[in-house]
Write a structure and sequence with these properties.
Elements: E1 6-8, E2 11-13, H1 17-40, H2 45-72, H3 82-98
Antiparallel strand pairs: 1-2
Helix pairs in contact: 1-2
């Protein structure tokens, strides 16, 4: 479904459904990162809990948007072969050995 063009800053903007939902997904990613950082750096436990709840809500919304896009073929994810999966596991195991604080 194509939205109506609108005039803004002397530019004609044509956004279709895919453009809009892609923008929403990008905003969700930024919001999730912001909540996560703020939650981690909050000294007040009540505030941290509230931020955690907001973060979870945004994660859930992100998942819904992502799955909607994926089902429509608007967000393609590569299929990993067995070797790529094993390489990723080995890589993370090596990182955890070098940086045990990542286990927290």
């Amino acid at each position: 479904m194509m939205s109506q063009p609108r005039k803004g800053d002397d530019l004609l903007v044509n956004l279709d459904d895919r453009d809009m939902i892609t923008d929403v997904l990008f905003m969700q990613k930024q919001l999730i990162d912001t909540y996560m950082t703020t939650e981690r750096e909050s000294a007040n436990s009540h505030l941290r809990e509230a931020l955690h709840d907001f973060h979870q809500e945004e994660e859930n919304l992100h998942a819904k948007i992502f799955h909607s896009m994926h089902q429509r073929g608007w967000y393609k994810t590569p299929v990993a072969g067995q070797q790529a999966i094993e390489n990723a596991i080995i890589s993370w195991e090596q990182k955890l050995v070098r940086q045990p604080e990542l286990r927290a």
